[in-house]
Structure to design on (247 residues):
């Protein structure tokens, strides 16, 4: 069965400034990952780290897709967003309100960024799950205002907001969930019961989590082969407008 990993990171050694590109590609091969959506939070600037990810995806178009990290508080947030959209190298953007320290519903520029994503067909990924700046309902504020933009709740609410995330995904047609860092089995059981299965996306959060463990997590549930195909690749392929024939 093909696998699309919807959520992986490219890490960098702070001393040598070397990105762990070979390790990322090697892990994909070892775990039989066909395609990975990759972002990075590490670099001399947000523009630089996005440039690295965009170039890497362009060098490995069959294996990697690029997601750009955007900090809406930054003075150049809209300029960087316009550059990302115009480059054609990215399929998604990523907000991380924990990393960048803002309250989503009152942060600047986010509506404008959503408008740019709508114009260019980019998916919006939102970090959720740790602390009072990362609740799914805070991002649902924008999902409601921009129903034409797909919004993915990374980590499906994580440690703090799993049940809230389920309700958000049920309520808003354009909200999807990604499964890395889901540890409470009851939350996943309820998600499988209540969230439309077309909205659930497999993610590993490599290298912070072990890819094979993230894959094996699904073996703990009574999931049909048809649903496994949805979770592991078909939902992501449709969301990211990939040609399913390549898989």
């Amino acid at each position: 069965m093909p696998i699309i990993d919807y959520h992986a990171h490219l890490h960098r050694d702070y001393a040598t400034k070397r990105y762990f590109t070979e390790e990322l590609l090697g892990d994909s091969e070892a775990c039989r990952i066909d395609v990975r959506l990759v972002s990075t939070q590490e670099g001399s600037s947000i523009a630089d780290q996005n440039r690295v990810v965009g170039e890497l995806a362009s060098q490995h178009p069959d294996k990697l897709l690029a997601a750009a990290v955007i900090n809406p508080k930054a003075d150049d947030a809209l300029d960087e967003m316009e550059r990302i959209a115009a480059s054609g190298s990215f399929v998604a953007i990523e907000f991380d309100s924990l990393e960048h320290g803002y309250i989503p519903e009152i942060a600047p520029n986010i509506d404008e960024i959503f408008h740019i994503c709508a114009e260019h067909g980019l998916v919006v990924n939102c970090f959720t799950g740790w602390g009072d700046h990362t609740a799914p309902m805070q991002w649902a504020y924008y999902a409601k205002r921009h129903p034409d933009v797909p919004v993915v709740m990374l980590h499906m609410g994580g440690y703090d907001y799993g049940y809230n995330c389920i309700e958000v995904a049920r309520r808003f047609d354009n909200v999807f969930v990604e499964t890395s860092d889901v540890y409470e089995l009851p939350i996943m059981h309820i998600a499988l019961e209540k969230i439309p299965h077309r909205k659930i996306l497999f993610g590993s959060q490599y290298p912070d989590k072990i890819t094979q463990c993230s894959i094996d997590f699904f073996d703990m549930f009574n999931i049909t082969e048809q649903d496994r195909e949805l979770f592991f690749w078909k939902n992501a392929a449709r969301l990211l407008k990939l040609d399913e024939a390549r898989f």
